[in-house]
Specification:
This protein is of the alpha/beta class and 567 residues long. It has 3 domains: 3-150, Rossmann fold (3-Layer(aba) Sandwich); 160-301, Alpha-Beta Plaits, CATH 3.30.70; 332-352 and 375-565, EAL domain (TIM Barrel). It is built from 22 helices and 20 strands. An 8-stranded mixed β-barrel has the order 11-12-14-15-16-17-18-19, surrounded by 4 helices. Strands 2-1-3-4-5 form a 5-stranded parallel β-sheet, with helices on both faces. Strands 7-8-6-9-10 form a 5-stranded mixed β-sheet, sandwiched between helices. Helix 21 links the parallel strand 18 and strand 19 (545-547). Helix 8 crosses helix 9 and helix 9 (198-219) runs antiparallel to helix 10. The longest helix is centred in the N-terminal third of the chain and has 25 residues, at 126-150. The chain is elongated. The termini are far apart.
């Protein structure tokens, strides 16, 4: 016996304990009572005389209703319109509908609208009616079992694996038709989850799923939930997806005050000679290009994005050899204490640069986010830590001095149970003190899994390490949360400097941030300081430490050593 049959047998056993509900939608009293008499011994009968009444009953019993027997000739809303309403709703479409009609001309329209079967009027023998009802329910239940494996249980759309199978089948029957691959993402979905809760976020995903279901039913094609807050659509080519963007955004936002921003990446007129998953990777690249844009919601995959993808693949391919050949260089940018009238060198930040033998100097903004998204950042971080610790130790031995150097610790690093031991070994092996190596952890890391991060950071501080919260002000942490965090310094996100001095000209927000640091009794570090005006303003507001081009750009170790000797 197959697993499918085993599951169906179980459903029959369970059915013996409770009759399956069947809804009869019939305005004629005699016909309604006749059907009731035929079916009541085997099924629980629900009745409605109008389509409007039937729709209320269907919505109220959508999870359990086994079948609808539907008369087409109803007062008010006609039976065919009710059938269409049932089949366009993703939650109701699974319910089989048998049409009751004496009009044979309506059969084609009913089949096209989604009817499962017909029972002619006047009614045939009750054995025939009962057999058709049983068969329709059985086929529907078997279909539900298949549907359970191929559908995402939250949204009702296909899951990713079955979607790719059906997309290939779609190609088979539409070989000469221009087809588009779409990927839809919800911007800052994780923050929505944290602010409003899982139930709210799930409801947003359901609304998106329902809207995409309506879209593919109207325009052709198929849709799936790819993962988490990402969806895919494979459909006939369209020239304008702005209406879809507006419809999905409106549906996702609902009547709530929270605006949900949807990014749509489109790979138009896909190349059907390439792998199906690669087509959607192209569409995903287009969607990702809108990650920091709130003015645009639709992006097309084109040659420029193709070049970016090729560059990205090259960086990933070259990563291992770059590590072994030490193409990654650690640069050092000075930090200056400005509480005294004359700024004093008080530390440095270790920053990584990639000197590629063929591509030249690659900006960190190109490869660090890439390695973060691909999990390679952990290996790069460990490399930087080793190089920085070795360099600090070398300066201590040769120059008889040391400058505290801060290194970046990524979110993925915080999940390493051996993190504290790793840093302790670096300190011991290079003859350092715990004051020589400061650890920078971004504010967003604290907000992602605050309890676990606090536990890890507390352990690091207990060993003697100093912790700086990097990019303070950009991670949406609450003031209540900040008061509980184990930190030794706040590092102000450089966007506050840019906004205060270039965009609004209002330094009030800087004063608020500095008040927070004083409330927490920890020093404030401002990065991105480029002019004397900025430095003097921050000094006047009581900022403790600044870092930026005003004093020095990041420089290689040998240049920083020469810089040290002048101080």
């Amino acid at each position: 016996m197959t697993a499918l049959n085993q599951m169906y047998d179980i459903s029959e056993i369970n059915a013996k304990n409770r009759k399956k509900p069947v809804l009869i939608v019939e305005d004629d009293f005699i016909n309604r009572e006749l059907l009731n008499a035929y079916l009541q011994q085997e099924y629980e009968i629900l009745c409605a005389e109008t389509a409007e009444e039937a729709l209320r009953i269907i919505h109220g019993n959508s999870e359990t209703l086994s079948l609808v027997l539907l008369d087409l000739n109803l007062p008010g809303m006609k039976g065919l319109d009710l059938l269409r309403e049932i089949k366009k709703d993703i939650d109701l479409s699974r319910i089989p509908v048998i049409v009751l009609t004496s009009d044979t001309e309506s059969e084609v329209d009913s089949l096209n609208a989604g009817a499962s079967d017909f029972i002619p009027k006047p009614y045939p023998r009750h054995e025939i009616i009962l057999a058709r009802v049983r068969r329709s329910i059985e086929l529907s239940e078997n279909k539900d079992l298949i549907r359970w494996t191929e559908r995402d249980q939250l949204t009702g759309l296909y899951n990713r694996e079955y979607f790719y199978r059906y997309a290939e089948i779609y190609d088979t029957f539409h070989q000469d038709e221009a087809t588009d691959a779409l990927v839809l993402d919800v911007s800052h979905f994780r923050m929505m989850n944290e602010r409003f809760g899982r139930a709210y976020a799930d409801e947003v995903l359901k609304r998106i799923g329902a809207e995409l279901y309506k879209f593919v039913r109207s325009n052709g094609g198929i849709a799936c939930r790819r993962e988490a807050d990402t969806f895919q659509v494979y459909c006939p080519h369209m020239t304008d997806y702005a209406p879809l963007s507006q419809q999905v955004t409106a549906a996702a936002s609902g009547e709530d005050k929270v605006h949900v921003h949807i990014r749509i990446g489109v790979y138009p007129r896909v190349d059907k000679t390439i792998d199906m998953e690669l087509r959607f990777d192209h569409a995903k690249s287009a969607a990702d290009s809108l990650r920091n844009s709130f003015s645009e919601s639709v992006a097309m995959y084109d040659e420029s994005l193709q070049a970016v993808e090729a560059f990205t693949e090259r960086l990933l391919d070259d990563f291992r050899s770059a590590l072994t050949q030490k193409q990654f260089a650690v640069y050092f940018q000075p930090k200056y204490g400005i509480r005294s009238p004359k700024p004093v060198l008080c530390g440095a930040e270790a920053l990584v640069r990639w000197q590629h033998p063929e591509l030249g100097m690659i900006p960190p903004g190109r490869f660090i986010p890439l390695f973060e998204s691909n999990g390679l950042i952990r290996e790069l971080d460990h490399y930087v830590w080793r190089e920085a610790a070795a360099q600090i130790g070398d300066w201590r031995k040769r120059l008889g001095c040391s400058v505290p150097v801060s290194v970046n610790v990524s979110r993925i690093d915080m999940m390493d149970p051996d993190l504290a031991d790793t840093f302790c070994r670096l300190v011991e092996e290079n003859g350092l003190s715990f004051d020589d190596l400061h650890l920078e952890i971004t504010e967003s890391a604290y907000t992602e899994d605050s309890e676990e991060i606090i536990r890890v950071v507390s352990g690091l501080r207990a060993r003697g390490f100093k912790i700086e919260m990097d990019d303070f002000g950009s991670g949406y942490s609450s003031l209540n949360m900040i008061t509980k965090l184990p930190i030794d310094a706040l590092k102000l996100d450089m966007m506050f400097i840019r906004t205060a001095f270039y965009e609004t000209g209002n330094t009030g927000i800087l004063k608020i941030m500095l008040d927070i640091s004083r409330y927490l009794s920890v020093p404030m570090i401002a990065e991105g300081v480029e002019t004397e005006e900025q430095m003097l303003t921050l000094q006047g507001l009581g900022c403790d430490i600044v870092q930026g081009y005003y004093f020095a750009r990041p420089m290689p170790a040998k240049d920083f050593e020469a810089y040290l000797k002048t101080k």
